[in-house]
Amino acid sequence: MEVLIQERKTKTNYETSGMYIEATRIIFENCLPDYLLSSEFYENLTVFLKLMTTEEGSFFIEIEKGVITIFLPKGKDPLTILSFLAHEIVHVRQYLTGDLEEMGDGTSMRWKGNLFLDFETNYEYNLLPWEVEAFQTEKELLKIVVDLLIEGFVYGHESI
To answer: Which domain holds residue 92?
Structure first.
């Protein structure tokens, strides 16, 4: 898997970026099911992390033919950014496994076969089942990432 970092209008902070690249690898390897990790898809996957200033709550992902773009908040503390990263990668897994599907109209989603029409106005965000799963799993992934990053820092891991 190739991970690239891009920022809008500013140069990348390579010291911080190394941490996000390593975190992305760790999260993918602990989040994606084995059949995707061992597949040609994962080997040919390119992930762009775009750090950008956006309104709170407007962080998102785009998935298209082996390229995943994750838009992350710029100017936040690293733990917050890692938390957003873990959350969005859970959504990546949901899309790749077919559990979550956009219906094309921009307002409807299918979650494990159940249709959610006009989900942004008809449902509370935190109660949407794909968000419930993402918030729960995000915490587990964040703990794994922080533990491994600290271990890498303490023992001088080359990629951090």
So the answer is: 2-154
Cβ distance 24 to 85 under 8 Å? yes
DSSP strand E in 8-152: where? Answer: 46-52, 61-64, 67-73, 100-102, 109-111, 114-116
Q: Look at residue 146 and tell me if it is in a domain.
A: yes
CA–CA distance, 142 with 137 (Å, rounded to integer):
8
Q: Which residues contact 109 (CB under 8 A, 6 or more apart)?
A: 100, 101, 102, 103, 115, 116, 119, 128, 130
Note whether residue 110 is domain-resident. Answer: yes
Which residues is 72 bridged to in the sheet? 51
Sequence-separated (6 or more) residues with CB below 8 Å from residue 55: none
Cα separation, 76 vs 126, whole angstroms: 22
Task: Examine residue 159 and state whether it is found in any structural domain, yes or no.
Answer: no
160 found inside a domain: no
Q: How many domains does the chain have?
A: 1
Taking the C-alpha atoms of residue 50 and residue 62, their distance in angstroms, rounded to an integer, is: 11
Q: pLDDT tens digits, residue range 111-126? A: 999 999 988 888 999 9
How does pLDDT run across 71-97, given as a tens digit for each residue? Answer: 777 777 888 888 888 888 898 889 888
